[in-house]
Amino acid sequence: MAYFIWANDMAIDHGPIDQDHKMLVEQVNQLHTATEAGRGQQVVGQLLGELIRSTVEHIRREEQVMRQLGYPRLKQHQASHVDFVNDLHALQQKFAAGNITVAAQLSTLLRDWLSLHIRRYDRDILTFMQEKRRTKTAA
Ligand SMILES: [Fe+2]
Ligand SMILES: [Fe+2]
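Above: inputs. Below: predicted complex with fe (ii) ion.
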């Protein structure tokens, strides 16, 4: 069974941002399936590398969207991105050092990130876009 299920209240742009988020959901589910089958430790090293690459790429895209929109809370949002990437790198180092709980820690980190960051920070981009649209229509 999937560990993390995409929910409608996570939708932002029905476009590239949602696609990236859905890919992250898929990756966390892959890790969970492997962990349940006792292969978590085997796949976590490769998955971490892929995750870091796709996350950095996603963040770049998302921050570009925010800049284009003139989104006013970019700094705080960026700080949350930096924290997450740092956490991923810290887990990669732990994995390289032979820590055997990295798969479980990564699952928790990703679940929290997807659930909390998207709902708290990424959704705020949508709120801002909607406000902007409203002001434009009103003008
Ligand atoms: Fe995001
Ligand atoms: Fe974000």
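The radius of gyration is 16 Å.
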